[in-house]
């Protein structure tokens, strides 16, 4: 019988399969694949858990953001109300200040008018006295002047007592 290369190839192939079966390679491969499938499943479960946790955190932060926005809106509204009240108060105080200043100015103007009228009257009296003195001095003699002086002194004495 002549053994050709095909026969030896067949024998080598059979020996290879026997060696593989003897070493339990298919079992090891199945075990390795099962372990790998288990690891992949565990990673998928972990990823699912992490995704759910991330969604929960996202929902929590969105709620906190909404609360913070509402609080910020309340703060802005309160600040606007306070600014409006401060503006109104400042306007009222300014108007009161202006009214007081106007009243004070008017009072000073009236006082100045009174003082001016008094000064004018005093000047007019002084002028009238000076004119009367000149007229009397020109028209009277020494005896009349002495009599007028004595009357004036007596009137001053009676008014001072």
TrEMBL record:
Q: Coiled coil: which residue ranges?
A: 30-96
Sorted keywords for this record are: ATP synthesis, Cell membrane, CF(0), Coiled coil, Hydrogen ion transport, Ion transport, Membrane, Transmembrane, Transmembrane helix, Transport
Topological relation to the membrane, as annotated = Single-pass membrane protein
Where found in the cell? Cell inner membrane; Cell membrane
Major location (coarse): membrane
Q: Does the keyword Metal-binding apply?
A: no
Which parts pass through the membrane?
6-23
Q: Does the keyword Heme apply?
A: no
What biological function has been recorded for the protein in this entry? Answer: F(1)F(0) ATP synthase produces ATP from ADP in the presence of a proton or sodium gradient. F-type ATPases consist of two structural domains, F(1) containing the extramembraneous catalytic core and F(0) containing the membrane proton channel, linked together by a central stalk and a peripheral stalk. During catalysis, ATP synthesis in the catalytic domain of F(1) is coupled via a rotary mechanism of the central stalk subunits to proton translocation.
How it assembles, according to the record, is: F-type ATPases have 2 components, F(1) - the catalytic core - and F(0) - the membrane proton channel. F(1) has five subunits: alpha(3), beta(3), gamma(1), delta(1), epsilon(1). F(0) has three main subunits: a(1), b(2) and c(10-14). The alpha and beta chains form an alternating ring which encloses part of the gamma chain. F(1) is attached to F(0) by a central stalk formed by the gamma and epsilon chains, while a peripheral stalk is formed by the delta and b chains.
The similarity annotation says: Belongs to the ATPase B chain family.
**Protein name in UniProt:** ATP synthase subunit b
